[in-house]
Amino acid sequence: MLTSAIRDRLQAQVPPLAGRTMLAADFAALVARNALPQVTPAAAVLPLGMRGGAGAAVMGQVRQAVTRRIGVVLILRAPDPAQARGTIDIETLAEAAQAALSGWTPDDGTPGVLRLDAGELRSLAGGVLLYELSFVLDDVLIETE
């Protein structure tokens, strides 16, 4: 799965996110309980959707271009002032996540590479900063007729 591959890549390439990166269902459960991670930084990888493009039937196969959208929500709690020294800031974390994912492909069978689409502050509620990076990946669906 694409989101699992992205989670694994973030954990391997961005040391502050190692062991602290979750998928959509786990993130949804935390949000439902109003219990975002106490230990941060953390991240959640979410499938944001996909958009179909042109398709064609060729030699018994239907091929259709697809653009997949993936979100990476970075979670950062406000630091305790006594422990603020040495804490990571959101810009550094976002840049590290972007560098780990931009230009990378989850497997050799995918024709495209991840491209940064946008970065956006989502929330500052309750002393927790949520910042979303969205990426796009060009892919092809192949169906046998």
Short description:
By secondary structure, this protein is α+β, with helices and mostly antiparallel strands.
What attributes characterize this protein structure?
single chain; 145 residues; alpha+beta; STM4215-like; 5-stranded mixed β-sheet; 3 helices; 5 strands; 23% helix; 43% strand; Phage_JBD30_tail_term-like
Describe the structure.
Pfam families: Phage_tail_terminator. InterPro entries: Phage_JBD30_tail_term-like. The mean pLDDT is 90. This protein starts with a helix and ends with a strand. It is α+β, with helices and mostly antiparallel strands and 145 residues long. A hairpin with a 2-residue loop joins β2 (42-58) and β3. 23% of the residues lie in helices and 43% in strands. α1 packs across α3. The protein has one domain (2-144): STM4215-like. The protein has 3 helices and 5 strands. The chain has helices spanning 2-13, 24-32, 90-101, and strands spanning 21-23, 42-58, 61-77, 115-123, 128-144. The protein has a 5-stranded mixed β-sheet.
Quote the CATH topology.
STM4215-like
**What structural category do the secondary elements indicate?**
alpha+beta
Integer count of domains:
1
- Helix percent reads 10-25%
* CATH homologous superfamily descriptor: Phage tail protein-like
Percentage of β-strand residues: 35-45%
Residue stretches low in confidence (pLDDT < 50, at least 5 long) are none
Give the spatial strand order of the biggest sheet: 1-2-3-5-4
Largest sheet: 5 strands, mixed
What's the β-strand tally? 5
CATH level-two architecture: 2-Layer Sandwich
Give the count of helical stretches: 3
Tell me the span between the first and last alpha carbons: 24 Å
What is the level 1 CATH name?
Alpha Beta
Please tell me how large the radius of gyration is.
17 Å
Instruction: Identify the overall geometry.
Output: elongated
Q: What is the chain-wise order of helices and strands?
A: HEHEEHEE
Mean pLDDT: 90
InterPro entries: Phage_JBD30_tail_term-like
Pfam families: Phage_tail_terminator
